[in-house]
Specification:
Elements lengths: L1 H7 L1 H15 L8 H7 L1 H24 L8 H11 L6 H48 L4 H12 L4 E2 L9 E8 L2 E3 L13 E3 L3 E8 L11 E4 L2 E4 L3 E9 L5 E6 L4 H16 L4 E4 L1 H10 L12 H4 L8 E6 L1 H9 L8 E5 L9 E2 L3 H10 L2 E6 L2 E6 L13 E3 L2 E5 L7 E7 L2 E14 L7 H4 L11 E9 L7 E4 L4 E4 L8 E5 L2 E6 L4 E6 L4 E4 L4 H13 L16
Parallel strand pairs: 9-10, 9-11, 11-12, 12-13
Antiparallel strand pairs: 1-2, 2-5, 3-4, 5-8, 6-7, 8-14, 14-26, 15-16, 15-25, 17-19, 17-23, 18-19, 18-22, 19-20, 20-21, 22-25, 23-24
Length: 559
């Protein structure tokens, strides 16, 4: 630090040195400063008086300085040396002035930082006290209120059951709870501005253990010089409500008479039998009001800004339609998605295991809990325009549940796409295009292009070419932690087009790039039985997978 202070005062020392030079030398005209000093003794006396006063002021300033830390002992010794009149030259005096200024600046900076920290701490404590006051004023029963306080005091955590119990399955739980304020009173979504809390739930999954409940998280272990794989978790996730859901959002397939009839019946049942607050799309509310004016209790939204308020309010989502309705419902949430209960009223129904005829029994079981769910991963994608020159020109993120497709559009030229995985070159796609799919979308466009069918809870990104002009270009499955970048090279003969779950089609010019990675917000869909059972049933019923006549037993046999 002493050397740094010396650097700060270098310019002042140079000025003092030039002053000493003038006292002992003459200028180009032969008039020396020393002679002029002798010829003007009054000026000389005033300069000496000023110097003495400055030196005294510096001494008083250093005496008043409070040492900042034990590491600044050399500065204290320096001030002591000044008090003992060991440093009295003009240059040293100027140097000490610089040191004193640096000390003062350092002390002021520390005081300013401490003041800012105190102010932020005061704001934090004030905000925390306000939130606690709101919780105490909220109309909650005593048990729910105590649960509320406990969740605020403790962050979401992993819970492993205690050892000593001999059961087949152990449960690892993640607790999720939010206390969220209603929207503005003028908003159509919120009829009042009271503090409401979203229904909390916890997720747990089973682990097939040997004779204890300890959940083994390691993929591999190294004990006694042997490398072994750990016991696999079944990863069958179960959702258990900690507080009863109050707000339900219903999405329906448009222009379907059977869906419209069921929606009228379901909305009335949820309101009258279950006492739930029902939210629907503006189109559906108009259909309900045309059916009867008694549906004025149904709530909706008016613009995109109010759609962003859905997640803080909605506890459960119900879809009436096919897989496309589930995709539409998931696209309405740009972040976390509430649990979805999909009813099959479409064509294939890979993601819609529930039958509409038993909707009362299904919803009774869902609202009571616990229920098995499938966590379906999503991709987050964004376009970087002219990647090679302008990294900062990035468009907004898009979330897809099935796939993002890059194709050649209406042009007859081959698509030319350079593909990178974590900045490592993968290949150059020359063909009709490329599909980057989630495992939930493995039974959609990727399957039609020759990709494999993958269980939806397998974390990964499917890399499937569309009609590649190559006999050796086979599809890939990449791990979920990688980032894939697809770029249109500058020497490409044509542009490309990209679509997200079949919507939001955009053009990619030469130099543009599409960047995709796994999104942190999965879509949880309720299972009729459990995840694997529902997946196998969907490919059997929807695709008639490996369906053929059984070989006749009547014929020649091995002897």
């Amino acid at each position: 630090p002493f050397f740094h202070f010396y650097l700060l005062s270098s310019s002042i020392i140079e000025n003092s040195m030039s002053s000493n030079y003038k006292l002992n030398h003459t200028d180009s005209l032969g008039n020396g400063d020393a002679n002029s000093l002798r010829s003007n003794p009054e000026n000389a006396f005033s300069d000496l008086t000023s110097l003495a006063q400055s030196e005294k002021a510096v001494e008083e300033l250093l005496i008043q300085q409070t040492p900042m830390q034990a590491s600044d002992d050399h500065l204290i010794e320096f001030s002591e040396a000044l008090r003992s009149n060991e440093l009295t030259s003009f240059s040293n005096c100027i140097f000490i002035i610089a040191v004193a200024k640096a000390l003062r600046g350092s002390a002021e900076g520390k005081a300013l930082a401490q003041a800012e920290a105190a102010e932020w701490k005061r704001r934090y404590e004030l905000e925390r006290s306000k939130n606690l006051d709101l919780l105490r004023q909220a109309p909650l029963n005593e048990e729910a209120n105590s649960m509320e306080m406990d969740h605020i005091a403790k962050s979401p955590r992993l819970h492993v059951p205690e050892n000593g119990k001999s059961t087949r399955y152990s449960l690892e739980r993640i607790c999720a709870h939010e206390v969220l304020q209603d929207c503005e009173p003028n908003s159509p979504i919120g009829s009042n501005n009271k503090l409401k809390r979203k229904a909390s739930f916890k997720l747990s999954w089973g682990c097939k253990g040997q004779a204890n409940d300890q959940h083994k998280k390691d993929i591999v272990s190294f004990e006694s010089g042997n490398i072994t794989t750990a016991d696999r978790s079944s990863k069958q996730i179960s959702l258990t409500w900690e507080t009863s859901p109050q707000n339900v959002l219903i999405f329906t397939k448009p222009k379907s008479t059977s869906v419209q009839v069921l929606s009228v019946e379901m909305v009335r049942w949820l309101r009258e039998q279950k006492g739930l607050n029902v939210y629907v799309e503006p189109r559906v509310k108009a259909e309900l009001l045309s059916e009867s004016s008694s549906f004025d209790f149904v709530q909706t939204w008016e613009d995109d800004k109010e759609i962003s308020l859905l997640h803080p309010k909605i506890d459960l989502v119900i879809t009436l339609g096919g897989d496309g309705t589930v995709l539409w419902a998931a696209s309405m949430f740009k972040g976390p998605v509430p649990p979805i209960v999909p009813f099959s009223m479409g064509s294939l129904g890979f993601m819609t295991p529930f039958h509409s005829e038993q909707y009362r029994e299904c919803l009774e079981a869902v609202l009571k809990g616990p229920l098995s769910i499938t966590l379906r991963h999503r991709l987050q994608c964004h376009i970087i325009r002219d990647k090679a020159r302008h990294d900062y020109e990035t468009e907004e993120n898009m979330l897809v549940l099935n796939e993002v497709t890059i194709d050649r559009g209406i042009t007859s030229f081959l698509t030319n796409l350079e593909c990178y995985c974590d900045n490592s070159f993968v290949t150059c796609v020359q063909g009709d295009g490329l599909i980057l799919s989630t495992t939930s979308g493995s039974t959609a466009y990727s399957l039609a292009a020759g990709g494999s069918m993958v269980h939806p809870q397998v974390p990964g990104i499917l890399f499937t070419p569309i009609c590649p002009h190559s006999l050796s270009f086979r599809p890939l499955i990449l791990p979920d932690h990688v980032t894939v970048r697809v770029q249109v090279p500058f020497n490409s003969r044509s542009s490309a087009w990209v679509s997200f779950d079949g919507k939001g089609r955009k053009q990619l010019e030469a130099g543009d790039a599409l960047v995709c990675s796994m999104a942190p917000w999965p879509v949880s869909t309720a299972c009729q039985v459990e995840s694997t059972n529902d997946f196998l049933r969907s490919i059997h019923d929807g695709l008639h997978w490996n369906l053929r006549k059984t070989q006749s037993s009547d014929g020649p046999r091995e002897t």
